[in-house]
Amino acid sequence: MSLSFRDGAQRRTRPGQLAADYVATFDHRKRCCLFLTYYAHGDTRNRGMALLHLKQTYAAAGLMLTDEELPDHLAVVLEYAAIAPGPGAALLAEHRAGLELLRLALRDASSPWADILDSISATLPPLAGDHRTAVARLAAQGPPAEQVGLAPFAPPEYMPQSQGAVR
């Protein structure tokens, strides 16, 4: 496969190497996650509801997903945006902070996929106010972590100070 880059260079990469690079980039780096609800909800229960909402949104537009892919995968969201441009653009804008963090992480890694995120970002409204704050928070803290219901199972030394030990 041959990839063309902005600087005019063309590079050939064996398909096996491309697959390995893809896995190293998108499966092993939290900031390079292609599942957009991960940035807003992390691996929490709230993410499950967000995924369900996306599936329902797609179904209402006539896009039926198989169980092979989660509805928040960037490729699926882009397919929806192609089918329903107005609502699709709104959905991408809703996940603007996560997309920006992904774009910046790919750019920092000199990834060949960074140009794709630059193109997507160029179609969205500029970052401002709350979105800039959300990107900075995501970069500093990462996505939310599940806190509810874990206290009874944690040893006292791992409990947050505000909860105290369970006795």
Shape: globular
What average pLDDT do the residues reach?
81
* Main sheet attributes: strand count, strand direction, barrel closure: 2 strands, antiparallel
Whole-angstrom Rg: 19 Å
For this entry, what is the oligomeric state of its chains? single chain
pLDDT below 50 for ≥5 consecutive residues: which ranges? 162-167
Describe the model.
With 167 residues, this protein is mostly helical. It has one domain (13-158). Helix content is 53%, strand content 4%. It has eight helices and two strands; from the N terminus they run E-E-H-H-H-H-H-H-H-H. A two-stranded antiparallel sheet has the order 1-2. Strand 1 and strand 2 form a beta hairpin.
Question: Summary?
Answer:
This protein is mainly alpha-helical and 167 residues long.
Q: Would you spell out the secondary-structure blueprint of this structure?
A:
Blueprint: E1 2-4, E2 10-12, H1 15-26, H2 37-41, H3 45-60, H4 74-83, H5 85-94, H6 96-108, H7 114-122, H8 129-141
Antiparallel strand pairs: 1-2
Helix pairs in contact: 4-5, 6-7, 6-8
Descriptors:
mainly alpha, 53% helix, disordered C terminus, 167 residues, globular
